[in-house]
Amino acid sequence: MDDRKLVVRVASGPERGRTFFVGSGVVVGRGSDCDIVLDSGCVSRSHLRITPDRAGGATVEDLGSSNGTFVGDVRVELRKIPANQSFVVGDVRMFLAFATADELVELEARATQPESTLLRAQLHLRGAYSDEETIPVEADSGSTSPPLSLEQTGPHARGET
């Protein structure tokens, strides 16, 4: 039986590499009372609610933030998104994926390791982010096959924008 659970992974900013189980739902923001705390001045105190759906994705709901929540280039107030879809909270890129408890422990342990190890850990979630679909990848030698797109390796993915 597959015991994979929906998780949200922080892909940019100071918390880059952190992964959190969504459970029955989480609130993301800068405030200490949030389930997922992001240390960014562009993130509101209570910025966003993420609620899993039965289809294997989640609903993201902006909670009246100043800098918005974006899926692609579109600012959203309420949007259903599938697993392996990225979204931006203020200036922090995040994405939904599936992981087991053991995988989450491994990802968290690697969160303080160099970026090449983090990439392998992210790809271990059995797929890399794509705008349209999940792409299986191999990353044992430090390279990927197929190669990652510019969107996956560009400045937004590295948190440089």
Overall description:
The chain is an alpha+beta fold. 14% of the residues lie in helices and 29% in strands. The strands form two sheets. Strands 2-1-11-10-7-8 form a six-stranded antiparallel beta sheet. A five-stranded mixed beta sheet has the order 4-3-5-6-9, with no helix packed on it. A hairpin with a 2-residue loop joins β7 (69-71) and β8 (74-76). The chain is globular, with a radius of gyration of 15 Å. The N and C termini lie far apart (41 Å).
Short structural summary:
The protein is of the alpha+beta class and 161 residues long. Helix content is 14%, strand content 29%. It has helices at 101-110, 115-123, 150-153; strands spanning 5-10, 19-21, 26-29, 36-37, 48-52, 58-62, 69-71, 74-76, 78-81, 86-89, 92-99.
What is the fold's blueprint, element by element?
Layout: E1 5-10, E2 19-21, E3 26-29, E4 36-37, E5 48-52, E6 58-62, E7 69-71, E8 74-76, E9 78-81, E10 86-89, E11 92-99, H1 101-110, H2 115-123, H3 150-153
Parallel strand pairs: 3-4
Antiparallel strand pairs: 1-2, 1-11, 3-5, 5-6, 6-9, 7-8, 7-10, 10-11
Arithmetic mean pLDDT: 75
What class do helices, strands and sheet pairing give? alpha+beta
Number of strands: 11
| Low confidence ranges | 114-157
What strand line-up does the widest sheet have? 2-1-11-10-7-8
Main beta-sheet strand count, sense and barrel state: 6 strands, antiparallel
Radius of gyration: 15 Å
Strand content: 25-35%
Q: Percent helix among the residues?
A: 10-25%
